[in-house]
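Anyone up for a design puzzle?
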């Protein structure tokens, strides 16, 4: 018994380096109504070290599922924190996810040196400023631009852990988050940046959705990173990149550029730049190749061509292919929308068909609720699962394809199953081996096809979409 208790007390003790643990234990015990258990203290320390419930489960139980840790936190620590912070601020506070814990407790003054009044023992004093509703920090060294609110965030804990490992511990210089439209790249980039912001001197998040010229983006970055001193911004792109590299060396900076597909050329193979936007390629090449202490995070529906040769599992340039939500994570989307009902098999069929794509699931949920009163079974039986805004979202991706890519997509839809390279080449009009390889590689980069043991296929959602397009094309 003594050895078990000793083990509980020593895990995640590094949290004490940055947090006033004893004061926090006392105040949470007051919110709970009795002392925290050793397990509660251990899990709390894990959260304060930046570990997700899944990571805590791995650290503590090795192969054990994270569900028990998640339930333990939801029924215990989260409730005590909600009570504590609500009492302190006079506002009703909810811990909506594990990664809000650090933010809330830091703003409440439990991080060492956070607020002067907490150094004098007044652990229930009100914080110096109110917790922002958006959850995004208000700091002169952080600029979040038009970053969306991610207070409601679904799953992707493993992906968050991977990004933290790559960016903070492995010191990657470029990390790219890839995936088809609606898969959650933007939300993941924001949430991951929120979680690791304290590890950086500067944080800046920008969207490339409206395709700003490279000169403008570089000017924005240089002005922000040089705000504490007067700086002359050079005229040429190369000189601006050189000045930015100097900033990335002198300070630890986290730069996030979202929607990078907007600067890439449609109607061509994946990863090529629009005319006039080639400077972004030079930026990526130099940030990826040059030694510095910062990180550039990029989100895109397709991978810029420079990154192909620069990246690797053990290299400082890496890519994360973002997949859909798992069953239980996806069902949380429906819970926030309203009341739905269906059998377990029907829920699995629904979420598998839409490949766990959060945005598409939200569209489907609205339709199921509006037209089928939440009846998943009736929605599935009507058979038309690709419609309206779902088609519009997929149109955006399809319209970026080259003519040869479109032909391959149509043929894969006709086959409705996996097909080998040899079979595909035999079925298509005359095409060289190199052209076909290039086309398949491009479609893989766009997350529109899958490669399983050298056999290529589409997800059911994509197959139905392509079939609808093909039928429309034939009859028009």
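Challenge accepted. My sequence:
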């Amino acid at each position: 018994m003594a050895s078990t208790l000793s083990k509980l007390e020593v895990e995640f003790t590094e949290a004490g380096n940055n947090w006033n643990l004893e004061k926090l234990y006392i105040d949470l015990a007051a919110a709970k109504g009795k002392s925290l258990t050793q397990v509660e203290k251990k899990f709390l320390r894990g959260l304060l070290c930046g570990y997700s419930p899944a990571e805590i489960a791995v650290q503590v139980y090795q192969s054990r599922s994270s569900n028990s840790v998640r339930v333990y936190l939801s029924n215990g620590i989260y409730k005590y924190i909600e009570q504590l912070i609500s009492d302190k601020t006079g506002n009703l506070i909810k811990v909506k996810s594990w990664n809000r814990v650090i933010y809330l407790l830091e703003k409440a003054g439990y991080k060492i040196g956070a607020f002067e009044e907490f150094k004098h023992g007044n652990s229930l004093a009100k914080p110096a400023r109110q917790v922002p509703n958006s959850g995004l920090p208000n700091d002169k060294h952080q600029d979040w631009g038009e970053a969306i609110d991610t207070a409601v965030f679904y799953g992707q804990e493993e992906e968050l852990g991977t990004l933290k490992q790559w960016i903070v511990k492995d010191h990657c210089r470029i990390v790219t988050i890839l995936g088809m439209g609606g898969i959650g790249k933007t939300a993941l980039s924001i949430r991951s940046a929120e979680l690791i912001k304290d590890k950086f001197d500067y944080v800046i998040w920008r969207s490339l959705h409206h395709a700003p010229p490279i000169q403008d983006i570089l000017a924005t970055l240089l002005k922000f990173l040089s705000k504490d001193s007067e700086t002359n911004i050079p005229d040429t792109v190369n000189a601006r990149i050189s000045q930015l590299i100097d900033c990335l060396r002198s300070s630890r900076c986290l730069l996030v550029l979202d929607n990078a597909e907007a600067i890439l050329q449609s109607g061509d193979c994946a990863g090529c730049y629009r005319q006039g936007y080639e400077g972004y390629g030079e930026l990526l090449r130099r940030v990826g190749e040059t030694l510095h202490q910062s990180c550039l995070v990029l989100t895109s529906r397709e991978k810029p061509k420079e990154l192909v040769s620069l990246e690797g599992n053990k290299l400082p340039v890496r890519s994360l292919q973002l997949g859909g939500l798992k069953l239980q994570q996806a069902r949380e989307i429906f819970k926030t929308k309203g009341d739905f009902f269906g059998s377990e098999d029907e829920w699995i069929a629904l979420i598998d068909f839409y490949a766990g794509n959060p945005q598409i699931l939200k569209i489907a949920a609205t339709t199921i609720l509006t037209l089928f009163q939440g009846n998943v079974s009736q929605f599935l039986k009507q058979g038309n699962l690709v419609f309206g805004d779902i088609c519009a979202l997929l149109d955006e991706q399809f319209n970026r394809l080259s003519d040869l890519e479109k032909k391959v997509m149509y043929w894969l839809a006709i086959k409705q199953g996996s097909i080998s390279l040899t079979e595909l080449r035999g079925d298509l009009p005359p095409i060289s081996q190199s052209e076909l390889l290039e086309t398949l590689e491009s479609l893989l980069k766009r997350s529109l096809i899958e490669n399983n043991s050298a056999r290529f296929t589409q997800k059911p959602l994509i197959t139905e979409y392509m079939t609808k397009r093909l039928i429309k094309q034939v009859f028009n």
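A detail worth pointing out: Residues 140 and 202 are 9 Å apart (CA to CA).
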